[in-house]
Amino acid sequence: MEKINMSSKKWVTVIILSIFCTLAIRFNTKPEVYSGYIYALIGIFFIGFYSANKIVGGGLGGLIVGLGLLLRNIWPQESTLTGEKLEAFLVEYNSYQDFIGKYFLVMVLGGLVLGVVGALVGNFMADKEISPSKKFSTKRITYLAIFVAMSVAINTARIGSVSFGGFPIISSGYLLGPVNGFIVGALADVVGFIIRPSATGGFNPLFILTSALTGFIPAFATKLLKEEYPKFSLVKILIGIGIGQLITSVILVPIFRVMLYGGNTFYYFAIQALIKQALSVPIYAFLVNAVNESLSRSVNLRKNL
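The structure assignment produced for this chain is given below.
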C-alpha cells in the first residue's frame, strides 16, 4: 500500500482546498446549480496533483463529493429570486436534486477517480525526466504542435458523430510520454473548440480535463503493465487504451453531459459510449502499435525531448 508522506504545509493546503471544494458543492452559482460540483471536481484534481498521493487524492475526492452532496440535503439551498426567474431556477434545481438521488454513488466515484488521476499526474510531473522545471525545447514544442494540429484537423473533418480525433491524442501519450499526452489533449480541446465550437457541444473546463486524460491514462496504464517506450506490445496497448477510454468516454463524459445539457440519462450516454469505444479501442490500439513500430525503427521521439 502506498505510504502517505506529506509535509505539514501540504496537509494544511490540502485540507483548506478540501473544505472549499466541499462547500462549493453546497453553494452554487445561480442559476447554474450544477456549477458547484464542477468546481469541486476541478479542485479535487488539483488536490490529487498537489499531494501526488493516490490515497490522499482518491480518498479526499470521494469524501469531498459525498459530504458536499449530503450537505445539500441537510442544508437545502434557498433562492432570493422571485417570479419567473424563481420558477426557472426551481425547475433546474429540482432536476439536479433528482440527478443526485439517482447517481449519488457515480458522482462520488467521479470524485475518487479524478483525485487518483490527479495524483498520478502529480507523480509523473515530479519525475526528474519530465519535471516542469525543464524548459520546453523547440523540438518538444514542435512535436506537441504537430499532434495538436493532427487531432484538431481529424476532429474538424468528422462526419456527424464519427471522428478519430482521439487517435493523435492517445498516440502522443505513447510516443512522447504521458505528461506530453496530457498537454496535447488539453490544447487540442481548446483549439478544436475555437475552430469548430459545435464539434464539442459547448466549452467547459471539464471537457478539457477529459481530453487531457485521454492522452495521459492509456500510456500511463501501459507503463504500469511494465511496458516501456518504444517496446509496447499490442495487447498491453489495447488494455491501456481500454482503461483510458472507459474512465473518460464511458464514465466521466456521460456524467458531465447529463449535468450540463440534460436530456437522456447517464446510463443511456454511457451505453452509447461503450458501444462506440468497443469499436474504436481496437482500431486505436492497432494504429498506435503500427505507428510506434514504424517510427521506432528510425527515430526516438523522446530523445532530448
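Interim note for the steering committee: The first helix runs from residue 8 to 26. The two ends are 33 Å apart (CA to CA).
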